[in-house]
């Protein structure tokens, strides 16, 4: 086993800071409405990859030649990726804040300020700043504000307009899936109700009577059908005969049967009854597996009001009662998908949505992005309906850029709709500085507060620097002189009222960026030893 190399004290901190700065300078280029594209190369790709978002850029970085500096860069990489996983945006802001805060506190530490006092001052100032940001947030409600906010994330007029429209009409819990096309294409399609991966068990269900032999693709559309949900397999005639008898006795015109799997002779019996035209039938098999399939059954039961008949709990379809049958307003089934619009939003479905939202909040705080995405999709299917965002471009590079912009906006916009917005362009951070400046001075702890005050000015200065049209210090002085709500419009190169210019940032994103930046800077500052393995394992996961 190779011997590690050990760095201690100031030497360890200095190397960490150097690596931190290298990656932070790269990510800072992407901050603001005038970002610069970064090209990366890899032995795994024939073409260079064009990147514009800080999260993806950070993830592509797997190390620096200097192992000690690499530790600092990887620390920032992890911080930025956690920011992306939690709120979907604000990664460049987090990097700029973290770099500025580390620079200020490191300078003070070298000058002899107590490390513990610095840490306490930073934590105090960040807590007060976060409370101030949270209190100042206001709802994002107007259509033009939603469009403006989406455009600030996407930096693409057509794409941001489509995404803003989707959330404006469907709400923050909208279930939106993305379809990709090889040719230039940007469009959206609204789907009534939620969509599930499923397949129509037989093309014969798409026909009436003794029509010619069916062929795929087949599609069934039903309005106001009765719904029976069975989380199991159907094989025998006796499994489905009681359902048919119950449906006929209740004089249902249409019946949707959702199952895990169906085989002959049960399938043949249902097809035969369907072709007699006395009862229109459709049988759909859900295509997810394991726990995901179980959750799909549970959500469909809540949406339609049908009882979930589960053989795992000892239940059988042959014992079905009229009270266990649900209803749907509209159903569409094909070889790939099942779309269901619920009959009404009863107490059961409201309770289920509330439980899912609570779970989503917990997982979001833990940074479980994939689980959060799944929960958001489930909530959208149960509450507001769904939509398809269709994306295509001339080249693979352009298509990947649009994909990443869309993904970032689809994650960040719902959070802004739920938790509100603040003035953008780094100005929300400037607006909390007076509260920090008014804090009583408590010995060396005041140096930590002062470090946070200076770091909060860094995002605006970086945006001005990226625009390349003015001196950042001069713009900062002018904005602070104008007072709260005034900021710099980098696209128009002017000082303006940000509310009138629709320059907004998500409150949740700004709060999380400040929290993450403080956490990363304090970790780097308080590191007393750095152990460097000679042949460390390369990790592609931040």
Account of the protein in words:
The protein has 542 residues and is α+β, with helices and mostly antiparallel strands. 51% of the residues lie in helices and 19% in strands. The chain has helices at residues 9-28, 54-60, 67-87, 91-110, 115-136, 143-154, 157-170, 237-249, 266-275, 290-304, 347-365, 369-383, 396-419, 427-431, 433-437, 445-455, 458-467, 472-482, 498-501, 507-525, and strands at residues 5-8, 38-40, 49-51, 175-181, 185-191, 194-200, 220-223, 226-234, 254-262, 280-286, 308-309, 326-333, 337-342, 386-392, 421-423, 486-489, 494-497, 504-506, 529-532. The strands form six sheets. Strands 6-10-9-8-12-13 form a six-stranded mixed β-barrel, surrounded by four helices. The chain has a three-stranded mixed β-sheet with strand order 4-14-5. Strand 9, helix 9 and strand 10 form a beta-alpha-beta unit. Helix 1 (9-28) runs antiparallel to helix 4 (91-110), helix 3 crosses helix 4 and helix 11 (347-365) packs antiparallel against helix 12 (369-383). The longest helix is centred in the C-terminal third of the chain and has 24 residues, at 396-419. It is elongated.
């Amino acid at each position: 086993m190779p011997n590690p190399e050990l760095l201690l004290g100031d030497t360890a901190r200095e190397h960490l800071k150097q690596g931190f700065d290298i990656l932070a300078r790269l990510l800072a280029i992407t901050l603001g409405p005038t970002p610069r594209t970064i090209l990366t190369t890899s032995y795994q790709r024939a073409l260079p990859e064009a990147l514009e978002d800080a999260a993806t850029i950070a993830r592509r970085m797997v190390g620096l030649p200097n192992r000690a500096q690499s530790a600092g860069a990887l620390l920032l990489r992890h911080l930025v990726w956690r920011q992306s996983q939690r709120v979907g945006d604000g990664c460049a802001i987090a990097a700029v804040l973290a770099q500025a805060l580390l620079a200020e506190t490191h300078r003070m530490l070298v000058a002899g300020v107590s490390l513990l006092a610095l840490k306490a001052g930073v934590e105090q100032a960040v807590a007060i700043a976060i409370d101030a940001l949270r209190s100042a947030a206001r709802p994002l409600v107007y259509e033009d504000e939603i469009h403006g906010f989406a455009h600030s994330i996407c930096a693409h007029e057509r794409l941001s307009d489509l995404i803003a429209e989707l959330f404006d009409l469907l709400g923050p819990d909208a279930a939106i899936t993305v379809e990709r096309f090889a040719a230039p294409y940007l469009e959206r399609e609204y789907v009534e109700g939620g969509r599930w991966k499923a397949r129509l068990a037989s093309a014969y269900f798409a026909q009436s009577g003794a029509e010619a032999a069916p062929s795929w693709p087949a599609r069934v559309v039903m309005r106001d059908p009765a719904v029976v949900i069975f989380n199991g397999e159907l094989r025998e005639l006796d499994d489905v005969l009681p359902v048919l008898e119950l449906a006929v006795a209740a004089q249902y015109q249409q019946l949707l049967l959702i199952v895990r799997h169906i085989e002959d002779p049960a399938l043949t019996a249902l097809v035969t009854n369907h072709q007699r035209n006395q009862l229109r039938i459709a049988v759909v098999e859900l295509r997810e597996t394991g726990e995901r399939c179980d959750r799909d059954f549970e959500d469909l039961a809540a949406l339609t009001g049908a009882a979930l008949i589960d053989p795992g709990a000892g239940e059988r379809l042959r014992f079905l009662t009229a009270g266990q049958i649900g209803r749907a307003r509209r159903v569409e089934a094909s070889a790939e998908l099942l779309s269901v619009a619920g009959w009404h939003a009863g107490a059961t479905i409201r309770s289920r949505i509330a439980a899912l939202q609570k779970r989503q909040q917990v997982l979001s705080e833990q940074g479980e992005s994939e689980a959060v995405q799944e929960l958001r999709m489930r909530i959208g299917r149960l509450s507001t309906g769904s939509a398809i965002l269709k994306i295509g471009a001339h080249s693979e590079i352009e298509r990947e850029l649009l994909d990443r912009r869309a993904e970032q906006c689809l994650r960040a916009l719902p959070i802004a709709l739920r938790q509100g917005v603040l003035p953008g362009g780094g100005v929300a951070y400037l607006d909390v500085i007076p509260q920090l400046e008014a804090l009583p001075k408590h010995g060396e702890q005041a140096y930590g507060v002062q470090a946070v005050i200076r770091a909060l000015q860094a995002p605006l200065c970086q945006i001005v620097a990226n625009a390349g049209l003015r001196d950042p210090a001069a713009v900062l002085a002018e904005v602070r002189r104008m007072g709260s709500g005034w900021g710099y419009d980098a696209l128009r190169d002017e000082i303006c009222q940000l509310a009138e210019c629709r320059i907004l940032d998500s409150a949740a994103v700004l709060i999380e960026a400040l929290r993450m930046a403080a956490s990363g800077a304090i970790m780097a500052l308080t590191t007393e030893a750095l152990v460097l393995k000679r042949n460390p394992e390369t990790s592609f996961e931040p």
